[in-house]
């Protein structure tokens, strides 16, 4: 293990923090949440586990910060597409969101852990900071959505994005079952129980968006 010098200045600490998140992302892309350990992250960045706690006191806090990084990248991507894409129908917006989420697979895999796990072991101060950060990130995209999707009333853009995340949180685990469940689903009689995210998510999103507009448009 290579042990790096202690980061003493604020820029050095920010760079170390960014490296920790980058290494965590690499581990996350190839493993399930329960299989990523703080010890493994510490080794990859050349820190002791105790030193890593100085940046992220818990595994949940580390992955919550990773979630923020991934969500910010996704929202920036969505905002860019909405600015260029003109007016959407519920169906075309659902197709856009589905396509972009495929490009942000690490975020999709992390979303199911967000409310149920990552927010469970944090302080009230961190919770407030996180929620205010989310609101600030969602707001400009929400405003653009209210322009891009005719019939979506003002103020419902954040609601639409929140419900979108809820659908991802529910559908992704169903599309990625545990090995015993996956094996059981090979039975042809259980075909109706199989969920493929690439198919199910755009369909579910389109239904959600149609229900949220005042005058549903024809796709």
Give a brief description.
The chain has helices spanning 10-28, 38-45, 49-53, 59-85, 90-103, 105-118, 124-148, 157-175, 179-184, 197-212. The protein is mostly helical and 219 residues long.
Describe this structure in words.
It comes from Deinococcus koreensis. This protein is mainly α and about 220 residues long. The chain has helices at about 10-30, 40-45, 50-55, 60-85, 90-105, 105-120, 125-150, 155-175, 180-185, 195-210. The chain is globular, with a radius of gyration of 20 Å. About 25% of the residues are buried.
List the helices and strands and how they pair.
Elements: H1 10-28, H2 38-45, H3 49-53, H4 59-85, H5 90-103, H6 105-118, H7 124-148, H8 157-175, H9 179-184, H10 197-212
Helix pairs in contact: 1-2, 4-5, 4-6, 4-7, 5-10, 6-8, 7-8, 8-10
Keywords:
single chain; 219 residues; mainly alpha; Arc Repressor Mutant, subunit A; Tetracycline Repressor, domain 2; 2 domains; 10 helices; globular
- The pLDDT mean sits at 92
Helix content: 55-70%
Specify the biggest β-sheet: none
Percentage of residues in DSSP E strands: under 5%
Number of helices: 10
User: CATH topology of the largest domain, which one?
Assistant: Tetracycline Repressor, domain 2
CATH architectural grouping of the largest domain: Orthogonal Bundle
Q: CATH homologous superfamily of the largest domain - what is it?
A: Tetracycline Repressor, domain 2
The shape is globular
Give a count of the beta strands, DSSP E runs of length 2 or more.
0
Gyration radius, in Å: 20 Å
| CATH class designation of the largest domain | Mainly Alpha
How would you spell out the order of helices and strands? HHHHHHHHHH
Distance between the termini: 56 Å
Structural class: mainly alpha
Low-pLDDT parts are: none
Query: How many domains would you count in the coordinates?
Result: 2
Domain HTH tetR-type: 14-74
Keywords: DNA-binding
Protein name: TetR/AcrR family transcriptional regulator
InterPro entries: Homeodomain-like_sf, HTH-type_TetR-like_transc_reg, HTH_TetR, TetR_C_34
């Amino acid at each position: 293990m290579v042990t790096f010098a202690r980061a003493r200045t604020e820029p050095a600490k920010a760079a170390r923090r960014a490296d920790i998140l980058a290494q965590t992302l690499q581990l996350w892309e190839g493993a399930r949440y329960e299989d990523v350990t703080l010890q493994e992250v510490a080794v990859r960045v050349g820190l002791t586990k105790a030193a890593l706690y100085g940046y992220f006191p818990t595994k949940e806090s580390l992955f919550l910060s990773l979630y923020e990084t991934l969500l910010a990248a996704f929202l920036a991507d969505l905002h860019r597409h909405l600015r260029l894409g003109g007016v959407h129908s519920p169906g075309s917006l659902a197709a856009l969101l589905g396509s972009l989420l495929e490009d942000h697979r690490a975020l999709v895999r992390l979303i199911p852990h967000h409310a149920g796990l990552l927010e469970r072991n944090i302080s009230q101060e961190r919770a407030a900071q996180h929620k205010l950060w989310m609101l600030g990130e969602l707001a400009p995209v929400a405003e653009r959505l209210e322009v891009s999707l005719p019939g979506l009333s003002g103020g419902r853009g954040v609601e639409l994005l929140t419900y979108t995340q809820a659908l991802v949180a529910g559908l992704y685990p169903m599309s990625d079952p545990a090995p015993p469940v996956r094996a059981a689903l090979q039975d042809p009689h259980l075909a109706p129980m199989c969920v493929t995210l690439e198919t199910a998510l755009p369909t579910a999103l389109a239904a959600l968006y149609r229900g949220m507009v005042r005058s549903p448009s024809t796709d």
